[in-house]
Each structure stands twice: as structure tokens, then as C-alpha cells.
Amino acid sequence: MSLKCKLQNKELTFGSWITIGHPSIAEILAYSGFEWLTIDMEHSAITLSEAQNLIQVIELAGVIPLVRVSSDNPNLIKRVMDAGAHGVIVPQVNTAKQAHAVVKSVKYPPVGERGVGLGRAQGYGLHFEGYKYWNAHDSVVIVQIENILGVQNVEEIISVEGVDGFIVGPYDLSASLGIPGEFENEEYLDVIRYLHSVITKEKTISAGFHVVPLDPNQVHEKIAEGYTFIAYSLDSLFLAEYSRKDLNIIKKESKVFDKYIKRSKI
Predict the structure, then answer these.
(1) How crowded is residue 217: how many other Cβ atoms within 10 Å of its Cβ?
(2) Please, what are the domains in the chain?
(3) Residues annotated catalytic, as ranges
(4) What average pLDDT does range 81-95 have in this prediction?
(5) Angle of helix 48-60 relative to helix 23-30, nearest 10 degrees?
(6) Distances in whole angstroms, Cα of residue 180 to Cα of each of 58, 190, 193, 246
(7) Is the Cβ–Cβ distance between 72 and 100 less than 8 Å?
(8) Distances 266 to 161, 231, 253, 257 between C-alpha atoms, Å
(9) Of residues 158, 141, 142, the one with CA closest to residue 150
(10) Nearest-angstrom CA–CA distance, 104 and 37
(11) Which tens digits make up the pLDDT trace of 226-248?
């Protein structure tokens, strides 16, 4: 089943975030069992050329490549789609008008306004008709709700035809409230409760959440709240957190072992 169908059916699906532009990183995560991987072009140094290489690696591993673009810029959206992205995640979508513009940037006329190129996605011109059909029926549009303005307009945003789902960005959302990273603050929790009420009554669109910390319990909590499009952490945090945690254990045990050796010599 395609990601598009899973989103339409509100089926649970897991992905992760790529911020390091090396093909091996994408390949490792792709082989880890994620259904989709998002190449982050907003908060990373990944270039368009590198993004295309990562898309190729992810596809070859049988995983769905998405790109989180830096903005709702139609030219950038067009270029990552031409590079072969199966869809885009667009940050800071705060109005229904923005959401309409994003859909138009992904889709060809008559639905959208995307210009036609013959790049990798279109088989370099050999498979344009097949790609045109795929683009109309299976390309994915995810908007990020990560600002209090987007929260205030969320019901109008997700009612826009062509939007397949939304994903909450907790850090920017908390920052828009003036409390960056304060996830236990009641003001932030009130916003999360409101979003929960929206997704509880929403029947036709998937709600997503980016669970950044390496904590499976937080994932289970979001699933219980009704989120089905779950992004779990990111490449750099997997590397940093696990290496730090294990090294701290090794150092602690080494000190105990060293004391034991010294005592045994006395």
C-alpha cells in the first residue's frame, strides 16, 4: 500500500529525519525498517544535488523518500519533486492560502501550477506520462503545524484539497509561544490538547508528530493520542545519544574496574 493510501486511511506509519548528507546514513536508516525517510533541507547543509543522491539511495532500499523543504517556495518544491521526492513536508504553514499554494507547487495543471521538467522523476523524459499519472494520484503533501498561527487555522488548513496530512513540529511550536523547548509548560500543553481535539474528530486526514527524543514511550503516547504519521528522532541524535550513553557506561564501569585492580594489587 502506498504512503498516500496509508495517510488517507489514517494507518500508522513510521519514518525518521535525515540531516547528514551522506548516502551511507540514508542507507543505514532505510535498512532499519522505517517506511519513509525525510531529507531535511531546512535545518541542514544538504544541497539539492545531495538530496537527489539521498533520494536515489532511499528508493533503491525500498523506502519512501520525502523532502522537508526550507519554505513554501514553489521553485524549490518543484526541483525536489523533479529530483524524485515522493512528496514534501513544508514548514510553517499557517494559513489555508499557504496550504493551497503548496499543493499547487507539487501538482501539475489543471490541479496545480507546477512547471513541467524532464528530470530524474520523469525518467529523464522517458516516462513522463506515467509520472504525470503518479503525480496526480500518489504524490504526498504534508504541512507542518509548528506555529500558534497554524494551530489557530489548523482546521481550515487541513480542509484544503490535496493536503494529505499535517505534522506537529514541537520545538518551533513551543518557540512561537515564547517558551522554546518547555514541553511541560501549561501553555504548550493547552495547545497540544486543542490539536488532540481536532484530530479526534478529523476522519479524512492523518495527523503526525515529530517525536525528537530517543524515547519509545513518547511515541506510544502520541499513538494513543491519535497521531498516525510518526517521525522518530533524527540521524545525528541517534549517533550522538547512543554513542554518549554507551561511552558513559563504559567509563563508569572502567573506573570501578580500575579501582578493583588497584585494590587487588595492595
Answers:
(1) 9
(2) 3-237 (3.20.20.60)
(3) 43
(4) 98
(5) 30
(6) 32, 15, 18, 29
(7) no
(8) 77, 54, 20, 15
(9) 158
(10) 23
(11) 999 999 999 999 999 988 888 88
Query: What is the average pLDDT score of the chain?
Result: 94
User: What is each CA distance from 211 to 125, 147, 168, 171, 198, in whole angstroms?
Assistant: 39, 17, 9, 10, 19
Average pLDDT over residues 212-239: 96
**pLDDT for res 202:** 74
Percent of the chain with pLDDT over 70: 95
For residue 222, what is its C-alpha cell?
A: 502520541
Report the 10 Å Cβ neighbour count for 132: 13
Name the residue type at position 150: G
